[in-house]
Amino acid sequence: MTKTRLVTVFLILAAFPASGQEVPENILRLHRDAIVCDLHADTQFMITYMGYDMSKRHRAVDWGPAGVAPLFSDIDLPRAKEGGVDLFNMSICPAPKSNRTPGAESFTRRSLKAIEKMLAKNTDSVALARSPKDAREIIASGRIAVLVGLEGGQGINNRIENLREFYDRGVRYMTITHSKTLDWAESAGDKGSPDFSGLNEFGKQVVEEMEKPGMIIDLPRVSEETFWAAFETVNCPVIVTHAEAKGLADHPRNLTDEQVRAVASRKGVIGVIYYCKYLDPSGKKTCDVGLVADHIDYLKKIADIDVVALGSDWDGNVIVPRELGDASRLPGLTAELARRGYTEQEIRKILGENFLRAWEKIQAASARGESAGR
Question: For the residues 27-47, what does the mean pLDDT come to?
């Protein structure tokens, strides 16, 4: 093994240390009995482009080219089961250098095909959830539910017909922007657009079209102007799959208190992300499971417990607390919440019931014809 290879392996192992966490048996029973939903994971890219087999248990060093993978391998079906995960997001993130290239559309189509193939190969252990009713039935059957989302509106390539097609193929939410501003929506990841503030008229049409069938409108990564433009264009609940509280950690990707309260006012949810950079942009605090719980505490304080959900960003090539290094370790977060005095009902809400309730409300609003575009 070359010196470079040894260094690579060392870095991979250092990024994924053992948690060393002991979870009390009563807390473990609660965690396994609860419905657990994770709203954001980027594992799809590895499935589509790296031959990642979701049916096998992995470590960062035992898969990928030449036996050495990139610095992520956080979730697969065995570890999801071990960690009590009942539903996880399969996020399609088409992020070429320019969001304005047609590559984003072809990326989305290729990714959907790969997800469909993975689901067909593992019908005994996983299934696509097209509705919260589907999700509950899949979970009750002992399988894991997969929620497919499109992380970034660049994937529709400025065509409403693509949005409708992807919905028909099972995509149930879309994150409006990724890290770059689109022709029709501003991102928090760059300087935005001088031509419009938040959403232009086509952007408003997009979120109205999402609202009609009950497609989830997801608002992380967007500029504050885009957040408010989308929120004011539609009547349904909105969600934020992976973000933090700006009042606790001042980062452009995090949400202001006003945004948190707005999401809560419509009975939407915010998935707390595990990314250390967003949990503590200063880098001065120890990045552990307590930091994740701190953000949950804060959201509960300024809004209410019903706004809190989980959005790990596993396999997003991000540094997370060592106790939450992969899906198998998730019971450690439940243990931390119990240690802080959260009740069983509150823990069940955070782990999954809040998200399923929000999704049910989004679909109910669609069924009643309450969308702003009608």
Answer: 96
In the chain, the percentage of residues whose pLDDT exceeds 90 is 78
pTM: 0.91
CATH assignment of the domain containing 269: 3.20.20.140
Answer for the pair 240, 271: CB distance below 8 angstroms, yes or no: yes
Q: Counting Cβ atoms within 10 Å, is residue 218 exposed (0-12), middle (13-18) or buried (19+)?
A: buried
Evaluate whether residue 93 is within a structural domain: yes
Q: What is the mean pLDDT of residues 41-58?
A: 91
Structure tokens at 31: 């965690």
User: Going edge to edge, which strands form the sheet with 240-243?
Assistant: 240-243, 270-272, 308-310
The range of the structural domain enclosing residue 93 comes to 24-367
CA distance 171 to 178: 17
- Name every residue whose Cβ is closer than 8 Å to that of residue 123 and which is 6 or more positions away in sequence: none
Give how many domains the chain has, as a whole number. Answer: 1
Here the tokens at position 358 are 């929000």
Residue 374 lies in a domain: no
* Higher pLDDT, residue 3 or 86: 86
